[in-house]
Every structure is written in C-alpha cells, then in structure tokens.
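Q: Structure tokens for this one, please.
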Amino acid sequence: MGNEQIKPSIAHSTEWTFIREIKQHPLFGHIKVYKGPSNQLQCLKTVIVEESQYKDQMDSLKKMIVKDVLSQNQPNCSSLISVNRLETQKQEEFCSNYVKIYLTADYSDQQIQQPKDVKLFMLNIIQALQVMDQIGVNNCQFCTSKILQFDDHVKVVNTQLFTEISDYEQLYFNEVSKNDWMIAPEVMNSLKVNCPPSFNSELAVIFNFGIIMINLLTGVHPQDAQIYDYKNLTLNDNFSSYIHSIDQLQIPNNIKQLIQDCVNVKATLRPTFKSITNLLRQVEIPLQVSQIKNEDVPTNQIFNPCYEDVKKVLSESHVNKNLNFHNESPQKIEKQDFLTDTQQSAQFRKSKQIYNLENAYNSRASIQQKQQIQHTSNKVKTQTKVQKVKSPNQKPKPIRANGNHQK
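A: Here is the predicted structure, written as tokens:
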C-alpha cells in the first residue's frame, strides 16, 4: 500500500492541482488534467495490462517515447509531445497480477491560431512529423486537431502513443469525423479497395501538411470548401480553386509554391521532409504574415499623388479596368494640380529612403519665387520696349518676315 501513495507522482504532488477528468479525449483517450505552479498543464494517462504482457507493452511504449528516441542520436524535436514521466506499479486483485503504467505528458486546451511566424511553424511541424515517421508512426490522418497551441509555439501529438490505435485503423473503421478529414487521395484509394496501406506514409502525411497550411493561412476549412466527396472517397472539382486560394496571400512565392507542391494529387511529385526543411532554412527572415502585409507602404511616409501616379493606378487597377482611362483626354484632369513634386512619382515611391518633404516643399517654393521674379522682370522689360516703339520721336522699323520683303 505504500507504493499506492507514491505513484503516480503528479497525483500526489503538492505542486500540481487536479483540474478535471476527460474520459474520451480524441487525442489522449481517458486522461486526468493537472495544473502546475506556473499555470502549465499536464495530463496523466493510465494504461492497465496483465503482467504477462507488461514487457511487450513497455517495449512498444519506449519505442515511441521521444526522450528515449532522442537518446539514440535522433534529431532534436521540441515540437513533439513527449512523455515527461513513465511510472509503473504492480498490483494484485482477484488472484490476478497486472501492472498500471502511468504516462505524464504536456497538455494544452488552447485553440490553434493562425501562425504569426510561418517559417518557424512549418519547420516545427515538419520536424515532428519526420521524427514520428522515423520511428514507424503512420500519420495518414494527420490534422489540425493533433496540433496543440502553447502560447506562442505549437506541439504535435503522437496519438498512437496514447490511444494505441493507428491512423489508418481509425479511417478504416470510420472513426474519423469530417472536421478531421484532410487525407491524401492515395489513402482514400486504399480505403475504397479495403486493402492494407500500400502508400508511402511520408508523402501521404505531406499532403495533410499542405492542407493544414492552407486551412490555417486562409481560414477556410476543407469541409467548408467541400473539396472531399466523403461517400465516394474522392476529391471534388473545386479542389484546384481551394489550393490556389493562397495566391492572394502576401507571403513569398516560393513558400506558396511549396505548399501547393505538398498537395499535389500525384504523390511522387510532392516534396520530402528533407527538401521542405532545406527550402525553409534558406529563407533568411521569419515569414510573419502581419509584418509582410504592412511592409510595402510604411506608415511614416505620407505622399501626395502626382498626375503620373493617378494615371498608373487607374490604368493598372483591377477594379477600374472598365474606366478606359487611356481613351480619355488627359486635359480633363488638371495636370498642374497633381504635379506638386517630381520626387513624389511612382518611381520615387519604390525607394526605401525617407526624405524630408518639408525641405523639398521649401526648395520648390524658392524656385517658384525665383521664377515669378524672373517672369515679372521679363514683363517689365517687354512693357519698356513697347513704350519705346510708340514714342513719336522715333519711327518703328518694319519687321522683316523673310528675305524677299520689299522696303
């Protein structure tokens, strides 16, 4: 009885407080949730096996526990939910010996958010999927619900570690809801013919990864977009328009192309874990969607439109194509009202430098003043010449238009 008071440690710890019990969690199964001193959450999973099956069960668990995998020179993966503590306790009841296995892992009930740093998000997800693929976990039913949000970072859950049911078995027994349906076409083909999985697990989960990225970046769920025919297990015709919906996003074109390559209907044309990781690491700056949207026109630069600016906007605008601007006379627009400063042209806008517009206006004003003074001086000289011509003491000389003019 003394051991019962010690294990599991989290249940008898003074630092952790029991929050609630979830009997049918979609990722963990039957768990108990505890809160730590820093408001962090952990879940406790209890597995009961007979003593004769204990050794095989432990070998299977240790194979999928990330901390043991990392000790065997596997790549570091902080974005994968791992077992923080593994405890066992033998008990005897009704003349039968059995063992309780306690698994304690990180837990979160935060809702998944649109990634702020797209590069970091994609790298974390791909690395987690790659580690699971290396230990033989088939993630053909990978979806957004298997990604847990921890404030500003995410972690992927290996559901097979906690539920002991593979993704393909869940699909085969129709235990996957439409909200979690993000599977590749080759997986649906295997389900239609009722055969064991013969597809490439790496390329299949990369398709799921691409669908997840489109879903999170656009906010449109595949179920709402109706890209799947759940009855016939096929892709609908509007699948093409769904994958091209990211064309309107303000992220680098190579990232858009990468996501679209991931959801290629032909598995052999999709990138691998290694190629995706290499491409993302070549991106030098973090892909922050909110920052990309605001970097084109800095808020601290105020521009007055010039005539060429207005002409360019009206001619190139998608909305104003029907205005037929080029067929209208430019004189209908007061050109002088827009030509306030040559430095405010479209070519100048592309510059990354910030200019002192106040000095530019002062310099322009001084030039205009000089032009006015010079114009006034010329006008006075002209009036003087006219007065000299009209003088009665002198006769004006005839103006010669050409060499044949007669005197």
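A few notes: The chain is about 40% helix and 15% strand. The chain has a mean pLDDT of 74.
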